[in-house]
Amino acid sequence: MPTALPVPIEFHLPEGWLPARPEGFDAPGVAFAAVHPQPDAGFAANITVDGGFPKDGVTLAEIADASVERLREFAESVVVVHRREAGSADAPALAQRLSFSAEADGIRHELVQSQAYLSLVDTEDPHKRAMIRLALTATAAQHDSVLGDFQAFVRSVRPDTGAGS
């Protein structure tokens, strides 16, 4: 069952990507997941969205560090390949790329995960900040070919003001 995000968002799924059925995607805490229609070596590239309200004073870098540590609980050889802070003081963001080895359906895969962390103001309480994490996980061989789709997805994310489209 999907988890609710701390603030409502809207986004556009890249062409060809398919929303994952909740029963077919085992990722606790995920609010939304989508899969690429062409798996590589039996592994379907996927985009996941989750988030929460960090404690006051916790930075996006600290949240990203904690994400790396959680990944190390079930993956091997986790390496932070790249990390970059972006955005502004009012709307900070952080992007990082991780490489790791993990088993899926009994097969070991060399995977790459690109993560984007966005800090958004809570629409109900402007003094609170919510964190949204967007992640692309793909095989090392397929990652670069689906990265543009993920970047377009990240650029499409907006707070959902309920104004309708």
* Largest sheet properties: 7 strands, antiparallel
Number of distinct helices: 2
Specify the CATH architecture.
3-Layer(aba) Sandwich
Q: How are the strands of the largest sheet arranged?
A: 2-3-4-8-7-6-5
Which structural class is indicated by helix and strand composition?
A: alpha+beta
Residue ranges: pLDDT <50 for 5 or more in a row? none
CATH overall fold name: Protein Transport Mog1p, Chain A
Average pLDDT taken over every residue: 89
N-to-C terminal Cα separation, in Å?
27 Å
CATH class call: Alpha Beta
The portion of residues forming beta strands comes to: 35-45%
Task: List SSEs in N-to-C order.
Answer: EEEEHEEEEHE
Number of domains: 1
